[in-house]
């Protein structure tokens, strides 16, 4: 895939970039390794000063970088601004809290004594150069939620961003440079996917984090495993959105629309499978479908647009194939199911609701990355749990209920990294984020995320020699 900005609204190639050659890659890896030896010794106050400065600059830049993101990958510009400001929030959150999150831990005195120590503690040290392989769908947020905790922990970063958001990738490197970070702390690698293996195998690179597709995750995990290097993977999702009889159906249906079409439906944590109890199915389906049908599809730089184009022509083709397969096998499109007729250019697709989906259809198993929802009717909580878990993914989940027994049941039995009740899944710096099954492993954000790329070090001190026996 060429490294280029291709406007998904028009299909026009706006700017292309040459991939870095071996000499430039080596220069950047060497700079990162050299910088780590010094940066790791800086104090939390200095790291916080730098990260807060980056947050201030990003806040000022938000309108401009939002337009760049929208031009590169098609998200509505209002959502792009919100993404930039969410990054500002996360930067400031880690700048304020990292020292406490990584404070030494002290085992119980009885356990220390039992170990034979005079005193002992657990200390967190940075690992080193971390390679981040990041996707295009949240081109700022996905990077910052790795970079902010990694830099505050004393690591340095190398970013291999998606090839269709090169200007956003270069902006991030420039942002940290303008904030005053020393050369080598955070660098962008303008390279294709074929260059990842050699960088990851380089002994100067300590670990890797990847957000992206399952095949990409398998590849990075395999290489890292061969090199015995730590990885964190956040892969695909096919999140269930369960609606039980006690739910506030009006709110559930209204929120469901946003949960499905956020980021033009191109989000791993977007609700995708809507599992509705038969007692409220008809009411929910009617209101949800009406909400999806009423969305404004159009130019993502227009402030009134709800849903812009998909990020690429191939992405739209993949989504169309899933919908067409479902329709051919008996599903019904309650709305949508095709390209908007008014858009001959660009990679638009109508907000779509499919009913009558069965396990014979590809969309039942595969992630639909676009504004397409699947509706299921179930008879009770047992069937809802079984259907919700009937997927290879386990990123997050949403449940609408006011019944405490339902709450206990779904927390216990849903196979997912998160269970969100009476609301939609959203990432927040204070809450751990990640999945199970083929959605990956490890966690981002919160104290769990900052510790992922730390050396958890046991510091043990033996008792002083008894002077009477020495």
UniProtKB/TrEMBL annotation:
Pfam families with a match to the protein in the record: Aldedh
Record keywords, A-Z: NADP, Oxidoreductase
Domain of life assignment: Bacteria
Regions annotated as coiled coil: none
InterPro entries linked to this entry: Ald_DH/histidinol_DH, Ald_DH_C, Ald_DH_CS_CYS, Ald_DH_N, Aldehyde_DH_dom, ALDH_GabD1-like, GABD/Sad-like
Domain Aldehyde dehydrogenase: 3-459
NCBIfam families noted in UniProt: PRK09406.1 (NF006915)
Family as reported in the entry's similarity comment: Belongs to the aldehyde dehydrogenase family.
Name of the protein in its database record: NADP-dependent succinic semialdehyde dehydrogenase
Organism encoding this protein: Streptomyces hebeiensis
Organism classification: Bacteria, Bacillati, Actinomycetota, Actinomycetes, Kitasatosporales
